[in-house]
Specification:
Layout (H helix, E strand, L loop, with lengths): L1 H26 L12 H27 L10 H24 L1 H15 L5 H22 L6
């Protein structure tokens, strides 16, 4: 497991550096903007990712040098299955948002994930699914004057 952590940490470090120095500068345009640079938040998040990956690399190197006994696999088949199902539901929700818009896809995604996670009270599911999407939609369209998908 420590060797896999080392490989994953090195891979994430390289990905973070690629994002910071190549992909983010190539993917943003210079132009008139107000306030913060359009590269600030992506660069900040990529920098944080890179530091976390470097921490993972250091931790796995320390463990390898101490020659600890390998840990058992921390994830079971059931956990992996639930992760795959949740990922499919989230991807399906994104597709629904893309096809039908945020007013239909947003509440549907929230409601399906709530039911998947075990919530059974219909009033709570409906309110939690509809109210945040409605508020965001009203704020975006009427306050900010932007269109949502």
């Amino acid at each position: 497991m420590d060797r896999a952590d080392l490989i994953g940490g090195v891979g994430l470090t390289l990905f973070g550096l690629l994002m910071i120095f190549v992909l983010i500068p190539l993917g943003t345009e210079e132009g008139a903007y107000f306030g913060l640079s359009p590269t600030l938040f992506p660069t900040l998040l990529s920098t944080l990712l890179t530091f976390c990956a470097l921490g993972q690399v250091a931790q796995s190197i320390i463990r390898i040098r101490r020659k600890r006994t390998p840990r058992s696999i921390p994830i079971s088949g059931w956990n992996l299955l639930m992760f795959i199902i949740a990922s499919v539901l989230a991807f399906g929700g994104v597709l629904i948002v893309d096809w039908f818009g945020i007013l239909i896809g947003g509440p549907a995604l929230i409601a399906v994930l709530m039911i998947f996670l075990g919530e059974r009270d219909p009033l709570r599911v409906i309110l939690t699914a509809a109210l945040p999407v409605g508020v965001v939609y009203l704020l975006a369209t009427h306050v900010l004057g932007t269109a949502l998908p």
